[in-house]
Amino acid sequence: ILNVEQSPQSLHVQEGDSTNFTCSFPSSNFYALHWYRWETAKSPEALFVMTLNGDEKKKGRISATLNTKEGYSYLYIKGSQPEDSATYLCAFISGTSYGKLTFGQGTILTVHP
Amino acid sequence: SQTIHQWPATLVQPVGSPLSLECTVEGTSNPNLYWYRQAAGRGLQLLFYSVGIGQISSEVPQNLSASRPQDRQFILSSKKLLLSDSGFYLCAWSVRRVDNTGELFFGEGSRLTVL
Q1: In this structure, are strands A107-112 and A10-14 parallel, antiparallel, or unpaired?
Q2: Lowest mean pLDDT, pick from A21-35, A48-62, B90-104
């Protein structure tokens, strides 16, 4: 069983704050890591697909880094806005999972105006 | 453009009754298809995975089953529901790629309550 952990479980920040959270995954047999954003009453949507150690991806105010050697990825949100409130999920693909994703439990972010 | 539809959106069923959730994808061919479940307070758990018609991989032993009668249709079924089957079910698809790193595109979800 693959262990994918996200921390913190939930986070409350004020509008304008920058924040970050962590996804930990097995450091052996890494293949890919995904980040998804899941807003209330909507479907999860992909933010990033990361495959290389040292990868840094950015989409607007959101960015992610990847360290496959130590088995973690960080998601950063700069200048949080209320519309960033959502559950952020990471998902790990191992080299033997044939493309199947194992999800973490998610970090619930609430941005207060 | 590609779209994915899943229904019904909400379902309340008695214990022991059958279940059928359906998912269809439009605008693409040969997708990988998935059924995930989110139980209360838990992350997304992969239930079934399909790379083609009639090809189903079951990830978790349970009283659920899945079928793929057509290339872009994925059905989740049960003959007799248990209380523990309650949860939020998500269908998803991904582009079939050689490197198997394609992102998932999710349906709207189905909330099942078993009483």
Answers
A1: parallel
A2: B90-104
Tokens linked to A43: 């479907």
- Residue A9 near residue A66 (C-beta atoms within 8 A): no
Contacts of A40 in chain B (CB under 8 A): none
Instruction: Kindly report the three-state secondary structure assignment for every residue of A27-59.
Output: CCCEEEEEEEEECCCCCCEEEEEECCCCCEEEE
Report how far residue B30's alpha carbon sits from residue A48's, in angstroms, rounded to the nearest whole number: 23
Using left for φ > 0, alpha for ψ between -120 and 50, and beta otherwise, residue B101 falls in: alpha
Confidence of residue B37 (pLDDT cuts 50, 70, 90): very high
Residue B38 has pLDDT above 70, yes or no: yes
Cis amide prior to B8 (ω within 30 degrees): yes
Task: For chain A, say whether B29 makes contact (Cβ under 8 Å).
Answer: no
